[in-house]
């Protein structure tokens, strides 16, 4: 008996991103991205790892798609490397870059797997960064041109188009605290990046619609922000501020029609928001068909009027907000395991932004490998427990009325985990980076069962 059955047509799949798996960094006319530059800069990525080879998916995609089919995946979310399509981020498209995604799409469709495209998963063409990157309005316009080119090539076969992945990371980690590419540390730049990313989304939605796109969306990593002490007014104020900077700064312009007043006031204390032009908010609020949610862990905050807090990736919270150290159990990333946070988050979004269907576009966990022998399937029971807990949490949200359409596990393969390089493994399939051998872990077999039963 299935205990937790999911709705009919619930979509089961897996997600990856171009720079994290493709490799082939110099093949077929691909240009440089900010992650090429960043990963080659000493001290930025663990042990100097780069995405030059990664999982070599660019050459092994056919076998990888066959493996997805064998696991029973119904959908596959992948991202397109913008510098493969436009090596300099603008100007003529590179047909060999387009050809790769054409082959990948056909391989997926040939196996009955629904392709879900992410147009931007963090690999901005370096040439655009040299001109200011996401702090420049032009970048948003170039993005829309690139979106059109992708739609022109694949729109006849790809039904679901998402614009950005986690603009919070692109803006705050890329331009705020600098732990991600391009490694800029400038609070004003972070807010200008937020706005230009949202504008890029809006302009790309227009471009995709003009091409005829039916299902268009965006993926965020909204946070379940909790006050450390639910009875403390200072903690509640801190949670409200962080919620504004993490969630409402994206969700309100996308789904309500403009930035919330408290967020505008906060931003204006840090930078004069001359980058917000008349009409931008209307463009950003173009209707979407799908909101992608990436969830990993909750965020607990406390108010620190004594100035002891650390703002980290939240410009303007320095000395006012303390981000609590995660409390176990933790994943290998040091992230808290709290499935209830996913239920709370889904319910909150469905309540405050009711019009849009939701899709979990990422959820998963890094755990260290527990076998020395790469040919023996890894018994990753800790990952199974994580996924099982979060699927129950998603199921609970559906039972409470949330319109959740599907679940995509992060990730299909172990891969290049950004600043952590290859040392953190998120895959349900193990990758031996010396031989590129793929071995499904026990979590992959468990997930295969979940999909075939449509439940737990
Ligand atoms: C998300 C990213 C994804 C991966 C996971 C662990 O923030 O979108 O690429 O790194 O975290």
Walk me through what this model shows.
The structure is a single chain. 40% of the residues lie in helices and 14% in strands. The strands form three sheets. It has an eight-stranded parallel barrel with strand order 1-2-3-4-5-7-10-11, surrounded by four helices. The mean pLDDT is 96. The relative contact order is 0.14. It is α/β, with parallel strands linked by helices and 456 residues long. The protein has 15 helices and 13 strands. α13 runs parallel beside α14. Bound molecules: beta-D-fucopyranose (FCB). The site of beta-D-fucopyranose (FCB) has 12 residues, from loops. Beta-D-fucopyranose binds next to loops.
User: Could you give the order of strands across the largest sheet?
Assistant: 1-2-3-4-5-7-10-11
Order of helices and strands: EHHHEHHEHHEHHEEHHHEEEHEHEEEH
What ligands does this structure carry?
Answer: beta-D-fucopyranose
Largest sheet: number of strands, sense, barrel closure: 8 strands, parallel, barrel
Kindly report the average pLDDT value.
Answer: 96
Output the number of helix runs.
15
Shape: globular
* Beta fraction: 5-15%
Write down the Rg: 21 Å
Helix- and strand-based class?
A: alpha/beta
- CA distance, first residue to last residue: 9 Å
- Percent range of helical residues: 40-55%
The number of E-state strands comes to: 13
What low-confidence regions span 5 or more consecutive residues with pLDDT below 50?
A: none
